[in-house]
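Sequence in, structure out.
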Amino acid sequence: MIKSDKAMAVILFLFSAFMFYQSFSIPHQVYGVGAAGPALFPRIWSVILALLSIILFFRADSDQNKNRSIGEEKYVYFMLVASLAYILLIKILGYLITTFLFSTISIAVLSMNRDLNKLRIITISVLITAGTYFIFAKVLNVFLPMGTIF
């Protein structure tokens, strides 16, 4: 597991470097956004990801990671598959339905060890979907995919 953590740290660091490099291809001063420009957030997130990958690389040898069970890694793989499915389905089902399904399934799977009933999971998912929709679509005027089916 330690080797896989170090390998993942290197992959994430390389991805963050690529993301930072690609941020320079984003056109400046689009829509009159001011001095910061649209490349600011990708650059910030790429630096944060690089720092976290460096931390992961050096903490991979700690005793806490040696005691992790293989069962915990299945959640990482599940979230990876769920995230890829979200990306693929958002154009088909639209933002609202896909986000609701993704958050419902993610919360249900990741909270298996806790006592969350179905109504609470659905309520949290509705709040996440409605909240992000309101922030992005209404406050920030960001176009969200409607979907081809609905």
